[in-house]
Design goal:
Elements: H1 6-16, E1 23-25, E2 32-36, E3 39-49, H2 61-77, E4 82-92, H3 98-114, E5 118-126, E6 131-139, E7 154-158, H4 163-173, H5 177-188, H6 194-203, E8 208-211, H7 216-227, E9 230-234, H8 245-248, H9 255-261, E10 268-272, H10 277-287, E11 291-298, E12 302-307, E13 310-313
Length: 322
């Protein structure tokens, strides 16, 4: 049997499923973009499965519901859109209690309300494992795609990539909760940079954008491939994780792994023409969003890391389903 990756499956889907005249952006970006009576409707769907995306025990039912919603809304945010409505479907093992189901539903509800989204329908069914599937619909005046980066653009990232993956490890391994609390909180309840994304999109200053779901290196590769550019990341410009000696007594990987390959941060990775650099920094400061200039786009392909005057291609790492 031929081995395949998640990206291979997406490319196969693109080759088989056709579009329509109303489809402005189809399969392969953070969201599809549909022309509905002259307005841009954006939509994205995600599925979370027990023992694949979460493990009940370390995760509460509330946290599963909350995280499922935020991960999906993040795709709309990464297009510069406003989430409006949500379909929520769930497959449930028959041994769940009604209290556990209520806890799951409250997590979904709180996550949706946090970003002004309304749950309007969905489906339920019996399942061997807990499965949560969410589809978010939103609108966007000027959608930002993965495919717009140009040579010379500056590469920015919000927040601190890698914090979430430290939090996930802490949860699964049972590290001291008080010591790892900020990392765990960022994993189970990520902060989406919706205001900044909307502002930069509306101003037309961002040339390409993606949310970091599968790790900085992997999602940078997707951005580079879609735009037909090479992205070079300056290691010295990556924000520190804030790990102290007490944390290093527990964590199993070196800091580079979390920064480059840790996933589920849902921070924004985006490119901007140099003349728009100051606008981005000023707007981020106005909104209180931490942002770092971590690299640039140039001719070529792939993603490279520049560290100590050495350059290496980043080819492996990041979350892979298959």
């Amino acid at each position: 049997m031929k081995r395949f990756s998640e990206d291979d499956v997406i490319e196969l889907a693109k080759s088989i499923f056709g579009g329509a005249s109303c489809v402005k952006v189809g399969i392969g970006d953070d969201c599809c973009v549909l022309d509905v009576h002259g307005n841009n409707l954006v939509a994205s769907s995600d599925m979370l499965v027990d023992e694949v995306h979460f493990i009940l025990g370390p995760f509460t039912f509330y946290q599963v519901g909350l995280k499922a919603v935020l991960a999906n809304i993040s795709d709309v945010v990464a297009m510069g859109g406003d989430p409006l409505f949500m379909l929520f479907s769930v497959g449930m093992p028959p041994d769940l209690s009604i209290e556990q189901v209520e806890e799951l539903f409250r997590g979904v509800s709180d996550g949706a309300k946090r970003y002004g989204c309304t749950v309007v329908g969905g489906d339920t069914c019996r399942s061997e494992k807990l499965v949560v599937s969410i589809t978010v619909f939103g609108e966007c005046e000027r959608p930002v795609l993965r495919s717009g980066a140009e040579f010379g653009d500056i590469l920015f990232v919000t927040g601190i990539p890698g914090v979430s993956s430290v939090g996930l490890e802490a949860l699964l391994e049972g590290y001291p909760e008080d010591l790892f609390a900020p990392f765990i909180e960022r994993h189970v309840s990520p902060v989406l940079r919706a205001e900044l994304a909307r502002s930069l999109s509306a101003a037309g200053v961002v040339s390409s954008m993606i949310d970091i779901s599968d790790g900085l290196a992997k999602d940078a590769e997707r951005l580079a491939k879609a735009s037909g550019v090479c992205l070079k990341i300056l290691y010295s410009h990556l924000p520190p994780l804030g790990l102290k000696e007490a944390h290093h007594r527990y964590i199993k990987k070196d800091e580079d792994y979390y920064k480059l390959f840790g996933g589920e941060d849902y921070e924004l990775l985006f490119t901007v023409p140099p003349k728009k650099r100051d606008f981005v920094l000023e707007e981020a400061e106005r909104l209180g969003v931490p942002v770092c200039e971590i690299g640039f786009a140039c001719k070529g392909d792939g993603v490279y890391l520049i560290r100590n005057q050495r350059i290496e291609r980043l080819q492996h790492g990041g979350y892979e389903h298959f």
